[in-house]
Each structure stands twice: as structure tokens, then as C-alpha cells.
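Work Package 4 report. The design task specified in the project plan requires that, given a folded chain encoded as C-alpha cells, an amino acid be chosen for each position. We show below one input record used in the internal validation round.
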């Protein structure tokens, strides 16, 4: 319900161009992967009367990221809402938003390259969740290895060499 309350509050403030609230704005343009993005970040204090505010200890600000993307002549818009315990500082807020999505993108890419996750044909939700957990666990173990191999090659070597597999799993071998 807080998502709905935040979205409603922000939309009301946007309609009046934030005339009734202290807001900080920051816009940046990013280019890459055949796409041009213009992202505008808004950050404002949490209103005292926001529904369910009391359930979020330390809540200080509301943030919004509005992305306008152009790819191949087609435009799209995406709006994301955030609640935060950080003080006002829209450039800092923007850095946190970018950092969050960079981690997500990096993890997804690594899982796809190492475990071919996008090619999975598993449809049963419980099985898919269990496999996703195992892949993330395995990726974590592979990343901890200190050698010259890529993550994908470490996975292959672990399949070929029982001593290397034991090392990845942290099992002492005689």
C-alpha cells in the first residue's frame, strides 16, 4: 500500500509542478547499447500524512526516476518510485538508483553467460525458484576462486576436474 500512496502523492505533486512541496531535480542523458536515455530524478521529503509511513522506521525521502528512452526511433517511458532513509541530495539519490540497477544488470548478465539462464525452459515456479537459488549460490562460490579463469571457465573446469570442484565447494581433498 505504500507504493500506491507514494505514486498517488508524487502524481499529485507533478500535476502542480511541485508547487506545494520542496523538491530537488536532476536530469542526465545516457547513451549506450543502441539506446539514448534521459533520466530525470526527483527527490522530496516524505509528507507527514503519507499512508503507512509509521511502518517504515527512519523514512526521510521519496524519490522518483523517470526514464525516457529512444531506441531505433521508438520512444518509451518508465517511472520508478523509491522510499529512502537518506537525507535530501538528489545527485546522491541518482547515484544510488544507478548503482542498484548496475548490480542487477551485472548479476543477470553473469547468470546468463555462465548458466545460460535465459535459455531455461523450466516452467514450474517452485523448480524455477530452486534452480535460480542454486545458480546464484554456485555463482557466488565461483566468484570466490582466486585464479586466472573467467567465471564460465571456472564452471567448466569444476565439471571436468574433481579436485577443482572440491576447491570451489571448500571440501578438503586428500
Amino acid at each position: 500500500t505504500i507504493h500506491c500512496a507514494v505514486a498517488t502523492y508524487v502524481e499529485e505533486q507533478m500535476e502542480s509542478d511541485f508547487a506545494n512541496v520542496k523538491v530537488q531535480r536532476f536530469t542526465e542523458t545516457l547513451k549506450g547499447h543502441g539506446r539514448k536515455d534521459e533520466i530525470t530524478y526527483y527527490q522530496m521529503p516524505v509528507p507527514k500524512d503519507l499512508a503507512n509511513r509509521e511502518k517504515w522506521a527512519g523514512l526521510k525521502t521519496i524519490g522518483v526516476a523517470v526514464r525516457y528512452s529512444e531506441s531505433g526511433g521508438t520512444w518509451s517511458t518508465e517511472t520508478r518510485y523509491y522510499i529512502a532513509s537518506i537525507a535530501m541530495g538528489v545527485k546522491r539519490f541518482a547515484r544510488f538508483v544507478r548503482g542498484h540497477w548496475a548490480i542487477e544488470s551485472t548479476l543477470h548478465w553473469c547468470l546468463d553467460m555462465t548458466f545460460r539462464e535465459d535459455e531455461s525452459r523450466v516452467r514450474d515456479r517452485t523448480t524455477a525458484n530452486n534452480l535460480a537459488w542454486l545458480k546464484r549460490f554456485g555463482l557466488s562460490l565461483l566468484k570466490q576462486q582466486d585464479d586466472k579463469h573467467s567465471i564460465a571457465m571456472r564452471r567448466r573446469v569444476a565439471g571436468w576436474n574433481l579436485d577443482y570442484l572440491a576447491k570451489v565447494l571448500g571440501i578438503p581433498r586428500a
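The longest helix spans residues 90-115. Validation will be extended to a larger panel in the next phase.
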